[in-house]
Amino acid sequence: MTGEKYTTVQDIPTAHHCVVQAPFLRHGTHDSSLRTKFDDRDDHEPFGKDQPSFISVHDSFKSQILGSSASIQVIAEDSKAFAHEAGVWVESTQEVWLTSNLYFDGQQNAKHPELQAKRAEISKLAIPSGKVTTRDDLLEHILTPNGGCPYGSYVLFCEQGAGPDRPSSFVLVDPKDSSKEPIVILNNFYGRHFNSLNDAVLLPPPKNVKLGSATTDNSSLPGGPPSGWTLWFTDPTYGHEQGFRQKPQMPSQVYCFDPQTSEVRAVADGFDHPNGLCFSPEGDVCYVTDTGSVHGNGDISHRRPATIYAFDVHWPDVDMTIGGPTLHNRRLFAFIDVGLPDGIKCDTAGNVYSGCGDGVHVWNKYGKHIGKIFLGTYCANFCFIPGGRMICLAEEKIFLVEGLQVEGALLEQKI
């Protein structure tokens, strides 16, 4: 543990700032509402104090989300952006696996000059000590890692790829046996390159769904997910925009991969940059974030999405080898007040959490914004861990949130 514990709860209902004294100014991507500029005044009281804290917008945030001793604490930090994405809890080893952002290390990759002397890495965070161990041995297998999720007894990583000869792919890592070679389970859409796979999540089937018979090697992967589980993922164009991927061959879409049949289907389109995704505890609603307001080349437009969309999940009344789950009734669930909605998760009560420009924002299942875990910095992703805890990945820092009344909806997917 490295930092002090922050326990302050700020009550800032929307009525506090419906009308504020002009002139006022705030950058929608870089500045929290707590940093709104009021001409030459330093009085930011309508929006609260700029320090790590819990911001309660609705009473339910305090009564249903926060415990009496909720706290925020930095438990690891570095000078580089080592804590960017993934965030996969491994119960058996009490570790969180994470990926870094691309950072400049000055070492040119002879095979992939398009990386421009940058690299990304995979690490694991020990709980509760906060010790971070980098897995450099995985670099040759997963060159540009991003998102991740549990996949049976494995950690699945989204490899964004590099150039034309390093396709974007899903790679499985055994977190308990470093001697095992990583396994690629998908790297194309019927011969076309994915753009740059970003995030993924497993969805179990409802109890009444007809599963059918296993028909492929993927379905019999030792330690893989149970029969009937499907892998859902996003594929934006960040790799090309950041200069290490070829020109996109497909739209930015959401896909569903069925390990039982090896079928991969596009299930939702019309996004600028689909990013994070998750499901409600019952699996009947899919949430997808769109981070289109900031492109990979640094171009920012506040007229593009910084938005969470919701879809209804429909399951077929036929054998899953004949028909799979589909998405319907697309609707805007939330627009973010600062930064981008990147990683996204649900708790077991159906509340929705997303890593945004100043921390983790929280909505109830009806789309009402009820509060924030305010970190004062960008949080790309996060994960729940048992015991009312959360790990927040904030580039150069990792925060531990403790004392919550809620548990993550994905914690039953134990590794």
Automatic annotation (TrEMBL):
Top-level division of the source organism's lineage: Eukaryota
Domain SMP-30/Gluconolactonase/LRE-like region: 231-387
This protein's name: SMP-30/Gluconolactonase/LRE-like region domain-containing protein
Species the sequence originates in: Kockovaella imperatae
Pfam family, one: SGL
